[in-house]
C-alpha cells in the first residue's frame, strides 16, 4: 500500500499519459518517507497500469541496492546493459537505484554517462536521502523530486489496514514522525524493535552507556558493517525528536556530529562516543 504523496501520483500519471516523462529523476528526502516505494509503484504503473506496490516480478524494472555497504562500477555496468535492451511489456525499461548515496565515485560517473546519452526507452530513478552525496554533474542531468514526510493520519490509516489496533496505530504513527517505513518497522521488524529498546535504555541510564557503546561497536566490527552505528544514532535522534523543544540543543549537536561521522572511516569509535556521551 502506497502511503501519502497523492499529488505526485497524479503528476507522474499525467506525465506518462502526456508522453513527457524525463529520462531520469532523483527522488530525495528523509529516510523511510516512501521514495523507493513510490519508484516501484510507478514502475508497476508503467508495466501493469496500477499505481501501487507491485505484488510480483516486474520484467521491465531493475532495482539496484548496496552490497556490502556500497554500489560499485560492475553493478553500474550491469545497469547499462539492462537499459540498452528494448522493453516488451512497458514503454520504458526502469532502473531504480536505491541508497544512491552509496554509489562509488566510479559508479556515479558510469550512471552519469548513461544519463548523458540515455537509451530512448529508458527511465532512471535515483533514490537518495540527500543531494549532497551525489556528483553535481549527475544531479544536474536528472530532475530532482523532493519527498516530504507523510501526514500522521495517513500512516495511522496504513497501520490499521495492516490489522494494528486503533490505539496502538495512533501511538506508533505519532512516533514515526512522518515516516511510514519507520512505522512499519516498529510493528514488524524485530531488529528495529531491539534498537528501539536499546536506545530507550541508553537515554534513561547514563551509567550503562559505556557498555552499550562498546557492545555496539564490537557487534558492528564483527559484522564488518558500519551501518549499525548509523542505525543506532538515527534511532536516538528519532527518540529525542519526540520532544523537540526539550531536546533541541542535543538534536542540533547530534545532527552536526552525525554528518561528520560519515566523513570518517578510521576513528569511528571516537566519533560515536563524542556524539553520544553527553546526552
From TrEMBL:
Gene3D superfamilies: P-loop containing nucleotide triphosphate hydrolases. InterPro entries: AAA+_ATPase, DNA_Rep/Repair_Clamp_Loader, P-loop_NTPase. This is AAA+ ATPase domain-containing protein. It holds the Pfam family DNA_pol3_delta2. SMART domains: AAA. Residues 21-151 form the AAA+ ATPase domain. GO terms for biological process: DNA-templated DNA replication.
